[in-house]
Write a structure and sequence with these properties.
Blueprint (H helix, E strand, L loop, with lengths): L1 H20 L4 H11 L4 H13 L2 H6 L10 H5 L1 H13 L1 H8 L8 H11 L3 H29 L1
Amino acid sequence: MSLTLHIGNIWRMIVVFFSSILPFCESKGSILIANMFHLRLVPSGIVSSAGAFVPVPFILKGGRFGVPEKTEDDIKTGKRAFFKKIVQQYGWIALLAITAIPCTGVGTWLGAIIARVAGLDKKKAAIAIFIGNCIATFLLVAVIAGVKILF
């Protein structure tokens, strides 16, 4: 019986991993999914962080999967222009801060798109995005653990 429960947890972790790859869910949403599955938070956080980082190299590289080459119209409009200005002014520190916000929708996907549009160095951008994602995941795991302890 314990073997069945263990295999069930593996499948749940796989669901957590693949849900963290999706945009707008990323590690923040997958941690909540792991919590609903009653999985341990720390291993789930590690799996979520790893899964959320999977699309980043593809987006930074560009091409068909990632963001197309930047154009003037694309740079001048919307959210990308605002973040592009901040990222160009403050560099990878701003990118780390943007991806460290523990809210769904602001994470690795948006960070990689901003880095691509702003023309940042791919290696530095990837490191900043990874660290920012780990910070956001840690903050969310800490909040969920704190709420569990209180209630």
